[in-house]
TrEMBL record:
<dbReference type="InterPro" id="IPR043129">
    <property type="entry name" value="ATPase_NBD"/>
</dbReference>
<dbReference type="InterPro" id="IPR008040">
    <property type="entry name" value="Hydant_A_N"/>
</dbReference>
<dbReference type="Pfam" id="PF19278">
    <property type="entry name" value="Hydant_A_C"/>
</dbReference>
<feature type="domain" description="Acetophenone carboxylase-like C-terminal">
    <location>
        <begin position="516"/>
        <end position="677"/>
    </location>
</feature>
<feature type="domain" description="Hydantoinase/oxoprolinase N-terminal">
    <location>
        <begin position="11"/>
        <end position="192"/>
    </location>
</feature>
<feature type="domain" description="Hydantoinase A/oxoprolinase">
    <location>
        <begin position="213"/>
        <end position="500"/>
    </location>
</feature>
<dbReference type="InterPro" id="IPR045079">
    <property type="entry name" value="Oxoprolinase-like"/>
</dbReference>
<protein>
    <submittedName>
        <fullName>Hydantoinase/oxoprolinase family protein</fullName>
    </submittedName>
</protein>
<dbReference type="InterPro" id="IPR049517">
    <property type="entry name" value="ACX-like_C"/>
</dbReference>
<dbReference type="Pfam" id="PF05378">
    <property type="entry name" value="Hydant_A_N"/>
</dbReference>
<dbReference type="InterPro" id="IPR002821">
    <property type="entry name" value="Hydantoinase_A"/>
</dbReference>
<dbReference type="Pfam" id="PF01968">
    <property type="entry name" value="Hydantoinase_A"/>
</dbReference>
Length: 695
């Protein structure tokens, strides 16, 4: 790409992954640059600045000039997630209604595996000695049954101060109906200990469910003192280097928000990074020609699976992060430990296993030559000829095949009594089976027919698995963006600013008049719109979406439905019954329905780059640049495979499998009998063999 083609103003997306920090720079005319830099877990700010500096050099600029000419910089980071996973958060004290200090530890009593009664729950983020009861009580209707006892707050704070806490979480009974006592408690704490971090459940998760609110506010307090300083320091550093606009941070809901807002509720960043894939899915959806998409974003350490049905990305109201419940609006992403850095090993029973541990950025796979000795999926791809030795990830690294062979021979092939190629192929098959099950989790188990969906294979490692996973699932087609290796970073350049508001609303649906619902929704919309207006969005740039959480009486989990078609009871009933039928295979005709909550999503719309479309009718079958032995699958084994340079393929070109396509940020495998064609926007669509009479 010519540097002259990239003209300001720029928009930049930066995604920190386990192995690489990805950056995408989009110019005013839609031209773009993708770049990768190794992640720096010891100080993630370094990786961000290295990525920006590398992109600036590729554009013939320095960092300061690039940032001065940038109108939008969106960042996604795993810092909140890693803080939870690694147990490196703040020491938190929890203030609860007297008599309810054990809610956090009792949980709901539900287990991931219903027959597993022995595996213990992870320890709560707040030990019992730091969970203290406060004299107060709010009734179920929001009435004050017992006034807040100020002295009990003062005594509790002194105990927490002596216990060395760094943050205080407040969760009082029924505060979702009346937050007055939580607010008063916060005021007392600020008066006697002004520097302590404080988080109230009525701000973080104002919903019914004492455990969910307790767990969510504790998680927010746990990550807050670690995440907020990082965000503020990064924004200050970027501002000092020339960035004139506020830094935006991707939230779990797939939208972005400025640092000042996110810093108060950093738990909203738990899925920051992966959730940015929503912007990329919506962008590429126009090129696929389908509104039913499921994406696998396979990076260095994990595979994130996201589903879009009828143009709407599936959302959830509750996340589970290693056993910790977080009740926030989030993109529904199913994540498994399956990436290029996933380590293969032989267990005590002599069985081959893949993950869940990964090699990370350093030392990384054995082939990186950075000190890693354990065999990974990347090593297996190199041994099987799917990856070529030499420069990798745009030249950021170099792959050493001999080191990969030694790692697989020592740790897999030898213990299993297999050849190196057989062991490598077994590791690949196992990882692809895990990815297949992850896709089934968000599709078939949710009542969707996966055969109606196009599979988007993204991430640096995803396009090597997409053809096999799509075939095994029976997907309509497999779509691979040229920007697969920087999928989430590109999605950040196509995201909106988003705010979510939720409110508990416990009534029988048949008893609710539409005008009461309308009034409640209008109040929530006005609050959300005002918050976006403070960030500079005009009324016409704000888009509002409504939703309700409904259930049958006694049902454990509510069903969320949109309300675009109106609030009439019969309309809401039809929507609920259709959703219930899809999820559970049945519904109760004319059954009693309860409303548990209202939801409003407010989007501050940012212009999205539109793909340039040209005639994509098949016009040529380009000759490969060369061939090399590549293991394709069990049916074909290792065959002499054509190797194509993706930079030379244009709309109208087609390739018959088996074939390898080398791209700047990824490598694509086409299986035997499949046909790949370059789409109108210059991306890749792999069609099953039966769709091509020539195959």
């Amino acid at each position: 790409m010519s540097v002259d083609e990239m003209q300001p103003p720029f928009r930049i997306g930066i995604d920190i992954g386990g192995t690489f920090t990805d950056i995408v720079v989009v110019g005013a005319a839609g031209r773009l640059l993708a770049h990768k830099a190794p992640s720096t877990p010891e100080d993630r700010t370094i990786g961000v600045l290295d990525a920006i500096a590398g992109a600036a050099r590729a554009l013939g600029r320095d960092t300061e000039t690039l940032l001065r000419d940038t109108d939008l910089l969106v960042h996604g980071s795993t810092v909140a997630t890693n803080t939870l996973l690694e147990g490196k958060g703040a020491r938190v004290g929890l203030l609860t209604t007297e008599g309810f200090r054990d809610t956090l530890e009792i949980r709901r009593g539900l287990r991931r595996e219903v027959w597993d009664h022995r595996t213990p729950f992870p320890p709560p983020l707040v030990p019992r000695r730091l969970r203290l009861g406060i004299g107060e009580r709010i009734g179920a209707a929001g009435e004050v049954l017992k006034p807040l006892d100020r002295e009990s707050v003062v005594r509790a704070v002194e105990m927490l101060r002596a216990g060395g806490v760094e943050a205080i979480a407040i969760c009082f009974l029924n505060s979702f109906r009346n937050p007055a006592h939580e607010q008063a408690c916060r005021a007392v704490i600020q008066e006697i200990w002004p520097e302590i971090w404080i988080s109230c459940s009525s701000d973080i998760a104002p919903i019914m469910g004492e455990y969910e609110r307790s767990a969510s506010v504790v998680a927010n307090a746990y990550v807050g003192p670690r995440v907020a300083p990082y965000l503020r320091a990064l924004e200050a550093r970027l501002s000092g280097l020339g960035l004139r606009r506020p830094l935006l941070i991707v939230q779990s809901n797939g939208g972005a928000l400025n640092v000042a807002e996110v810093a108060h509720q950093p738990v909203q960043m738990v899925l920051s990074g992966p959730a940015a894939g929503v912007g990329a899915i919506r962008y590429f959806g126009r090129d696929t020609g389908s509104s039913d998409l499921v994406s696998i974003e396979v990076g260095g350490t994990s595979c994130d699976v996201t589903l879009m049905r009828d143009g709407v990305v599936q959302m959830t109201d509750q996340l589970d992060v290693e056993g910790h419940c977080i009740a926030i609006p989030s993109v529904e992403i199913h994540t498994i430990g399956a990436g290029g850095g996933t380590v293969g090993h032989v267990d005590a029973g002599g069985m081959l296993q893949a993950g869940p541990h990964g090699a990370g950025a350093r030392p990384g796979p054995a082939a990186y030559g950075l000190g890693g000795t354990q065999p990974t999926v990347t090593d297996a791809q190199l041994v099987l000829g799917r990856l070529a030795p030499g420069p990798y990830a745009g030249g950021a690294l170099s792959l050493d095949r001999d080191k990969a062979v030694r790692a697989i021979e020592q740790h897999l092939a030898g213990p299993l009594g297999l050849t190196v190629e057989q062991a490598a192929a077994g590791l690949i098959r196992l990882v692809e089976q895990n990815i297949q099950h992850a896709v089934e989790r968000v599709s078939i188990e949710r009542g969707y027919d996966i055969r109606d969906f196009t599979l988007i294979a993204a991430g640096g490692a995803g396009p090597l698995h997409g053809a096999a996973v799509g075939r095994a699932l029976g997907c309509a087609a497999v779509y691979v963006p040229r920007l697969a290796g920087v999928f989430c970073a590109f999605g950040m350049c196509n995201t909106d600013v988003r705010l979510d508001r939720v409110r508990s609303w416990y009534h029988r649906l048949d008893d609710e008049q539409p005008d009461l619902l309308e009034a409640a929704f209008r109040e929530m919309e006005e609050q959300a719109s005002a918050a976006l207006a403070r960030q500079g969005f005009a009324r016409e740039a704000i888009r509002l979406e409504r939703g309700l959480a409904l259930r049958y009486p006694g049902q454990q989990w509510p069903v969320s439905i949109p309300s675009e078609e109106g609030l009439a009871v019969d309309v809401l009933r039809r929507g609920f019954e259709a959703a219930h039928q899809r999820l559970y295979g049945h519904f109760q005709p004319n059954g009693e329905i309860e409303a548990l909550g209202l939801k409003v999503a407010a989007r501050g719309h940012l212009p999205m780059a539109a793909p340039t479309l040209v005639d994509a009718e098949i016009q040529s079958w380009p000759e490969p640049l060369g061939r090399r032995p590549v293991w394709i699958n069990d049916a074909l084994g290792t065959v002499s495979t054509p190797i194509h340079d993706g930079r030379r393929l244009a709309p109208g070109d087609a390739v018959l499998g088996p074939a390898i396509i080398d791209e700047a940020t990824t490598t694509l495998l086409v299986e035997g009998g499949q046909r790949l064609r370059v789409t109108a926007a210059g991306n890749y669509l792999i069609e099953p063999a039966q769709k091509d009479g020539a195959a």
